[in-house]
């Protein structure tokens, strides 16, 4: 009987130890919190109030969108039109930066943000690059020939390409643009955005130059994440806007989650 008791307690200790170790192992996997256009659920996107709020909420990264103004200035705005997020209408590329920065980019969201403006890429780098990671998305780069060179130049000017630990990540849906940027500045990790389930051949091709494949939350599953990780890349999913979406993603070993509401991914 004594032998049986000892065997029982030994087995019990083994089970407790196994699950305890498993729990610790899981707890060491930290999913990066990435503020979508800052804190887009609480503030007008891609503005300084939005970035500041994201930092207050504990963001590990700010996700920002970059395009070119009429006079070739790198500007941070998501849409190719200014209609939705400002008090003007028309293409971003039809306005000079001086004209863009005079627009009200806050009132559309709430009167209390009246006067918030469209920032330049340089301003965002100077204000935040030493305080938080940046996930930089090239929006429709095929519309802006040379945008990759300009972004690489601004990062090199500040030695941000040498900061390491994936402090700056550049991503886009357009593979040719990302390949070009990688050739210009190989020290900065790059990623491809996808909104469909990838296949093995495609992933292997992307892995030749990219460090990330970043899937939309709707296509995240075990197979997709395993496929990305098994090819030596990381996976950042986008964009969480509800508790349901956040709960789904928490079941997968993602490297980061992009969210409008960072408090959903605590």
From TrEMBL:
Superkingdom: Bacteria
SUPFAM superfamilies the UniProt entry points to: PLC-like phosphodiesterases
GO molecular function: phosphoric diester hydrolase activity
InterPro entries, A to Z: GP_PDE_dom, PLC-like_Pdiesterase_TIM-brl
One Pfam short name: GDPD
GO biological process: lipid metabolic process
Occurrences of domain GP-PDE (ranges): 31-266
PANTHER family on file: GLYCEROPHOSPHODIESTER PHOSPHODIESTERASE, CYTOPLASMIC, GLYCEROPHOSPHORYL DIESTER PHOSPHODIESTERASE
Name of the molecule in the record: Glycerophosphoryl diester phosphodiesterase
